[in-house]
Design goal:
Distance between the termini: 33 Å
CATH superfamily of the largest domain: PurM-like C-terminal domain
Structural class: alpha+beta
CATH class of the largest domain: Alpha Beta
Bound molecules: cobalt (II) ion
Oligomer: single chain
Length: 303
C-alpha cells in the first residue's frame, strides 16, 4: 500500500492473488440504463488496469425512494447486469440505502497472478505511452448540463464511457507492458503524474497525438470546464511543464474523465505491435501519445 494504485491486491497463494476495488457515483447521463452500464464499466476498469480478471461484483445503491420512481432504479440495475454479463462477471449481491441523492456503483473482485500485477510504477526510459479512449468526458458533460453539446457527440461520449476496458486489457496482457493505469477523475496528466511520482523517470506528452472527442476543443474555449479540472491542475502544477501548449489544451489534458481509457507504458520495440493489435481488436481510438524519458525525472513535459 506504500504507493497509490488502481486496486488492492492480496496474495492467496504463490500463483493466485485477489484484486479488489470499489467505485460509485451520482448519475453522469440522463438515461438510467446507460448510467448503469457506465457505472459497471467504470468499476471494472481498475481491475483491468491492474492486469486482473474481474470475477464477481456487488451492487452499491443509494436511492431517493420518496422522490424517484422505482422503475428508474430497475433500469439502472438492468443496465448494470447487462454490462456485467458482457464482461463475464457474476453479480453476487449488493446493498441499498435510502438517500436524498441517487448513487450507483459496485465493489468488484477479480484475480491476478501475483507476479503479473501491473502497477503504475514500472515505466522505463524509452517506453512509448498508449492511451485507449479519447479525452473530454468532463467538458462534454459540463456542456450537456448547459445544453451546449450536440446530440451526436453526447451519444459518442456515452458509448465510450460505457465501453469496457476488457479488450484493451487482454491485448495489453498478450503483448506485455511495463506499467498501466486507467484515466479517471484526475485527468490524463493527473494519472500520468501518479505513474512517475517517486520514480527515476519523467514523461513527454505530445498533445497533438492525444485522441480527443469532437467538439471538445470548441466547448473548452467557451468555458465549459468542470471545476475538477482546476483542482487537478493546481494539485500537479509543480510536476508539469506546459510552456509548449496553450491553456485550453491543458484544460483538456487535466479534464476529469468518467470511465476513461487505459494508459499504458510499453517498451518501444512492442509499441507498434500493441497499437496494431488494439486497433484490430476494436479499440480504434488507441494512440501513442508520448514517451518515457530518463530526465527530467518526476516531471511531465507537454509539447
Ligand atoms: Co483507477
Ligand atoms: Co477507482
Ligand atoms: Co448483509
Amino acid at each position: 500500500m506504500e504507493k497509490a494504485d488502481d486496486a488492492g491486491v492480496y496474495k492467496l497463494t504463490d500463483d493466485l492473488a485477489i484484486v479488489q476495488t470499489v467505485d460509485f457515483f451520482t448519475p453522469i447521463v440522463d438515461d438510467p440504463y446507460t448510467f448503469g452500464q457506465i457505472a459497471v464499466a467504470n468499476a471494472l476498469s481498475d481491475v483491468y488496469a491492474m492486469g486482473g480478471k474481474p470475477l464477481t461484483a456487488m451492487n452499491i445503491v443509494c436511492f431517493p425512494s420518496k422522490t424517484l420512481d422505482i422503475s428508474v432504479l430497475r433500469d439502472i440495475l438492468r443496465g448494470g447486469i447487462d454490462k456485467l454479463r458482457e464482461a463475464g462477471v457474476v453479480l453476487v449481491g449488493g446493498h441499498s440505502v435510502d438517500d436524498s441523492e441517487l448513487k450507483y456503483g459496485l465493489s468488484v473482485t477479480g484475480t491476478v497472478h501475483p507476479k503479473k500485477v501491473l502497477t503504475k510504477g514500472g515505466a522505463k526510459p524509452g517506453d512509448q505511452l498508449i492511451l485507449t479512449k479519447p479525452l473530454g468526458t468532463g467538458i462534454i458533460n459540463t456542456a450537456v448540463k448547459a445544453r451546449m453539446a450536440g446530440e451526436r457527440v453526447i451519444e459518442t461520449v456515452a458509448q465510450s464511457m460505457a465501453a469496457l476496458n476488457k479488450t484493451a486489457s487482454e491485448v495489453m496482457l498478450q503483448v506485455g507492458v511495463n506499467a498501466c493505469t486507467d484515466i479517471t477523475g484526475f485527468g490524463l496528466l493527473g494519472h500520468a503524474c501518479e505513474m512517475i511520482q517517486d520514480s527515476q523517470v519523467g514523461l513527454k506528452i505530445r498533445s497533438v497525438s492525444v485522441p480527443i472527442f469532437p467538439e471538445t476543443l470548441g466547448l473548452a474555449r467557451v468555458g465549459m470546464i468542470p471545476g475538477g479540472t482546476y483542482r487537478n491542475k493546481e494539485f500537479r502544477a509543480k510536476m508539469v511543464d506546459s510552456a509548449g501548449v496553450g491553456d485550453i489544451m491543458m484544460d483538456i489534458l487535466f479534464d476529469p474523465q468518467t470511465s476513461g481509457g487505459l494508459f499504458m507504458s510499453v517498451s518501444a520495440d512492442k509499441a507498434g505491435l500493441l497499437l496494431a493489435k488494439l486497433k484490430e481488436a476494436g479499440v480504434t481510438d488507441a494512440a501513442i501519445v508520448g514517451e518515457v524519458v530518463g530526465h527530467p525525472r518526476e516531471r511531465i513535459v507537454v509539447e
